[in-house]
Design a protein that fits this description.
single chain, mainly alpha, Arc Repressor Mutant, subunit A, 6% strand
Length: 101
């Protein structure tokens, strides 16, 4: 194997190990949240300064995040599927008709 191919494989293995270790952590620092979410550190700092993302500053400087709170924050504002919206519309229409009878 060529050195570049070996290096690519090693880099891929390293990234997989990093990803796996993030899955097992309960508390993240800013770098880990950026890697976990795919958001830039700059954007995360902006969110923390506006208190738009749950975070902790135990000493007033370092920022920490709880994994479960980040997961909840990422999954907020769920968008309903077209099928769910159609079902909701049908149910609303049926209930409205029943109420007018």
């Amino acid at each position: 194997m060529e050195n570049t191919e070996i290096q690519k494989r090693l880099d891929k293995i390293e990234q997989l190990l990093i990803d796996q270790s993030l899955q097992n952590k309960l508390l993240f620092n800013i770098d880990e949240v950026a890697a976990y979410t795919g958001l830039s550190k700059l954007y995360l700092y902006k969110l923390t300064s506006k208190n738009e993302i749950p975070h902790y500053k135990p000493n007033g400087k370092n920022i920490f995040f709880k994994k479960d709170e980040i997961d909840t924050w990422l999954l907020r504002n769920r968008q309903a599927t077209n099928e769910e919206l159609e079902t909701e519309a049908v149910n609303y229409s049926v209930n409205r008709l029943k109420g007018s009878l």
